[in-house]
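Sequence in, structure out.
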Amino acid sequence: MKEEKKEKKSLKGYWVTTFLIGLGFFTMGLMDPLYDNYVPIFLGYYLDQNSLIGLVMTLDNILAIFLIPIFSALSDRARTRIGRRMPYIITLLPLSAIFFALVPFTAYESLFLLVVTIFCLNITKQAVRGPVVALMPDMVPGDLRSEANGVINTMGGIATILGTVLLARLMDVKIDIPRFGGEVDKILAFPVASVFVIIAVVLLVIFVKEKNSKVASEEEKEETNNEPILKSLKAVISEKEKSALYILLSLLCWFIAYQGILPFVGLYTTEVLETSAGTAALSSGMVGIAYAIFAVPSGKFAHKHGRKKTIRWALVALVIILGLVFIHSAFLTGLSYTPRLISFWVLLFLFGIFWVTVVTNSFPMLWQMADYKTIGIYTGLYYFFSQAASIISPPFAGAATDLFGYPALFLYGLVFMLLAFFLMGKVNRGEAEEE
């Protein structure tokens, strides 16, 4: 009992630090949903085929699979007076904010300028993601990181709500730009979001103080060395007990499902449900609202009832919900605008509840299979498989909509969620009580 009280006191002492570090995640949560919802629409100005749009939308994931491990390793080895991660954060995050603000303006100029801006944005945004993610375990003790991760996930959900529910409404506001022929819309949310990113960076620099990494001991330097990702994958595959491999394959499948649907939700709502551009992002906003509300409760539920069981039941729920969305898109088009839109939002809110349940508990489950020396390896494998799914999925999902229409998008997701459910059945480790 005394030890529990001590842990609660420690958590109280770190929640402000966790909140401030969470500002880095907040910036990602702010930019990502606006990017995912509106960049396909901007590309649609020039490209007719969804498969080509999906191909461009994989650019950030292709860069992420290389840049996140590289810049994480570089920041591990950085030795500066302001710390290991902060030099990357204070340079790359402001640059990503500038490129993000330019995206809608270049969309009105040409396809070439738009693609170049998207490329520069993704280089800076994905390069900084690793140092931002690594800042939390640097600053928060190991036994408090699960609670800290819950707080940070909630902040990411709040940022998604801010981006999709509030800032997205600015996409309907027209501003006068003579260069583009007078009043134009689909611009304002991006530069406003960039201002929030800059503010977050300023707050991080002022209030989060990393220790002077120039004085790091030789022992600390040795602990930062990471094995190559392919060597790590070979080690996991060769293990006699295959739980780690099966959970990695499971998360590959559920991320294939999610990343196949996500880039086309904005297009679906504008083209099928016939919403305005500002209203389109509210669909993804429903997922973000559920994410923010249920991130912490889903972790507590899994602690009580078991992580594997919780994830598998969540996957069953996701299969059912995607089936209902398929029926909605295929058979309820005869309904009037408002009930069709509201019912779609309700389904996506339910999707968000069970999606955050899967995501919140899968990383700790994989982490539980690692020991102290291999936590970094398993973390790298998580990102390797999730980003691989993000590369693989959008072109295939886009091709499915080109061939069979938008209802096929949700059947595509359903099949991979169901496959993830069966693979999770083969996982036998990773519960919270295991040593």
